[in-house]
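Hi R.,

Here's the chain you asked about this morning:
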Amino acid sequence: MRQAINLTPAWAALADHYQRTKDRHLRELLTEPARLSVLSMELPGIYADLSKHRITAETVTFLVELAREAGLRERIDATFSGAPVNTTEGRAACHVALRAPADAVIEVDGHNVVPDVHAVLNAMESFARSVRDGEWRGFSGETIKAVVNIGIGGSDLGPAMATEALRSYADDQVTHRFVSNVDGAAMQWALRDLDPASTLFVVASKTFTTQETLTNAKSARQWLLEGARQAGCDLVDDEVVAKHFVAVSTNAAEVTAFGIDVANMFGFWDWVGGRYSVDSAIGLSLMLAIGPDHFREFLEGFRLIDEHVASAPFSRNLPVLMGLIGVWYINFFGATTHVVLPYADELRRFPAYLQQLEMESNGKSVTTDGKALGWSSAPVVWGEPGTNGQHAFYQLLHQGTPLVPADFIGVVNPNHRLMHHHRLLLANLFAQTEALAIGRSSEEVASSGVTPELVPHKTFAGNRPTTTLLLNRLDPRTLGSLISIYEHKVLTQATIWQINPFDQWGVELGKALAGTIATELEANEQSEPHDVSTTALLAAYWERRDEAEARLQ
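And here is the predicted structure, written out as tokens:
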């Protein structure tokens, strides 16, 4: 284990630099000569503007030195090489292999995994083409007109977000839906207007034992079989299921027990973390929506950023700089939250996707060797698409007391023809970043004729930092690049904070307790001791359950 990061010379230099520069205003910083040349860059399909941050070229130098002292280059190299960087689980976190070219060599435990990746990718393509071309048919001979993905966490957020983002590239003759929540209302609503004879289910669960996913899958199976019986289908149950269910899993035994033909099981590996898996077989629903060729372009977008991260110096390395700038605000300015604001309706699920990617990865309080952190780690990530957020929480961003660094994401060339809408949308994006940076002084407010008693209320302090990412267009390749940027940002911050971003033990305790309590709810009696509050909640449920059920009868 390296020296604690807050005891390194680079951390001390940054702390001193913070004291010297913390009060400098972006009004002044944005007048620096050559600022844009240092704090903006062009990647394939993406223009990044980091100039509206409370940093200077000297800040970047200190942050890059911090990354060097933290061993970031070594951590990147280890991750790319298939080394067991997931230390608490003793395995690799080799998601970069999922988008590696077929002739690449990436070894995990001495085995080149790239051919395995491409074998699964080829199987996915063959299946997706058979569905999209109408060769795959349901129990009555109908072609597939609806695809329902059943998963949760990384088995839902990635493909659901990407399918929404790339809806302009999807086959609009097929309905695509995603069910993750175990709330029965979610499943009922997803199936409300679908025909069992033309519906395909993709059940995504590595172990095929995930409680929520299997509960939803069993309900979908029941719905399908009831529909088949009502249609007079004379196939046996497993034959019906085999025509309407495929699995993304590694557990052949459980998949077979469910009734799914293992020939229609698409696998992945224990070195693929759920929140890093949208470019694996977990993306099968996305491939069904946009087609194999566009899915290949999606993978290419990831690979472009992987190559950038592997080769660019940290001072010109976009994901690394975004991660380091986040460290600057979290660990020196005391920021505790980060907002992501996509000015593209298709990216409305992107903040939710990043919540898992960032908070499940870096929401840790111990170092890789189990010691309590002496510094803050991941912020709370949140956001909404513009311009909706402007009429909700931008008041806090502009005039509230917290410092909330923000990422603005815009698209230059939209996937629609309503250009007057789009120009107004981009005008709002550019105006918001300018207003957050520059603000409006009390003198400026007063000189505009505002009465003295209202001047404080109409003053904007400014100096609120933002990143702007301008995408040339929102297409499969650029979306893949955008996701990859944030994946590598997470690794950068995890390395600085000396934590493991590839495990998620924090989700386990609640899941274990839920299993016990679910059994108690079914049995109508408490079998295990609980705290006084939970015991009272169980009693309150039992007291009211009969009344509620009577109303539903």
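One quick note: The first helix runs from residue 9 to 21.

Cheers,
M.
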